[in-house]
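Worked problem 6 (solution included).
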Amino acid sequence: MKHTVVLLTILSLPLAAGDAEAATEYRLELKSPPGEYWWGGLSVDGNQMPYSGDTEFSRDLFANNAGNQAVPLLISSKGRYVWSEKPIAYTFKGGKLLVTSAHGKIDSGIAGKTLKETYLHVSKKYFQTDGKLPDPLLFTHPQYNTWIELMYDQNEKDILKYAQSIVDQGYPPGVLMIDDNWQENYGVWEFSARRFKDPKGMVRKLHKMGFKVMLWVCPFVTSDCATYRALAKQGLLLRDAGRRKNPVWSNTPNKPAIVRWWNGASALLDLSNPNTRRWFNAQLDRLVNDYGVDGFKLDAGDAHFYKSGVVSKNVTLPNEHTMHFARIGLKYPLNEYRASWKMAGRPLAQRLRDKRHRWEDVPLLIPGIISQGLMGYAFTCPDMIGGGEYGSFLQTATIDRELVVRSAQCSALMPMMQFSVAPWRILGKDEARICKDMAKLHLKMGKEILTLARESAKTGEPIVRSLEYEYPNSGYATIKDQFLLGDRIMVAPVLEKGARARKVVFPKGSWTGDDGSTVVGPKQIEIKAPLARLPWYRRK
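Solution. The predicted structure is:
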């Protein structure tokens, strides 16, 4: 396998919006022969993986994390890898892999003969774990998020009601995430006085119920509040590049940029500035110290917000702004991220991006989690059970009850599982019971899952693994509808509407099922999977 690196001409390319410097473009072209499979780049593309010689697919990671985790890494089932410290673009076409970068050198090589050998090599070389992991409660117990039930009406009364319902319905308490709009304004991280009469007392009550409490935060700042004006004066906001016809800054000093995002138009913290990072951490520390908050869901750090029209204190690529935001969470063991750049091996909980409440999105969960692990993001969580986009839950007529059940089953034996919509509210009695059974299964397996997480913190290995990872060159590379939890538990959830049976591939060894059956592999058989069953097997 020949590796060819071609150094091209010097180009005049911007390293960051408003800061143009000459950059060298690097180019790497590899042949991808039949039987070689590749993973990496973006976790949101997990359903497209593995890439092969027959694949036609392109991605440019510059200012693009596609709403999820990203890393400038590609690894293959034949021991090859590609890495860069800077964003890369890659194309699979015509049996070839073309990788380019306008911002940094491209490293490539061969490390062993299997996917596992390659991964262990690159993880140790480029993003060796620091031995730490997020808060153990994230692994041992189900998580609950207030988003679907309350949406933008986060308030003390209904949060306590939701938490009490979890306990009353027999679900094990765990982490409770209070989502967007609990605050006064974006950047003003104070509980809304209109909706929270006694926030400290609320947190204390949630603790007594058995919950740890997380708050949703973001790097945006509402542009018509006192905090915005103070941050602008101190130079802690990204500045407008001055290329817009009608820049919005009025008489505010330092001309802050106004960036459009899903909640409107706001200013954006300049996290390339150490003073800004200290300011943001101080706001979070105050919430911990004054209210007893345990941690944070840090959202909206996507790289494309920093792509154009903004200037930072220090020359910083858009992707690196995302990395600065992710580093904020390292101070808080109880954390969650959806957008990340080059934070592999770090103790951050990484959730898959929001999925829609439709059957086409359910099969995305397994390849998404597998791709996260092969990119170095081991501490992973699928999306909220049933989907994280709230529009589908506004009317009960649009809710697919079977989908919620199968989604819960798919999540139950992943490193983390997260409820948001209340199953007892939207489901029938039998369906709600199945969801509760899945929460209890996760609780039952919690110590084992935590043990795997601790091992991962030491070795860097994925917790969720593809069959190809543990059983290389056995024809398993393209299996996307079953997964391994560690190296001994195999999970094969039902992912299709109406299905009450499915085919399962069993690698070599003796496998004992949740139903008491024993299967000796390697073989493929069809198993029965009624609605109440999550098929899973343990290798002896």
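Discussion: The first helix runs from residue 115 to 126.
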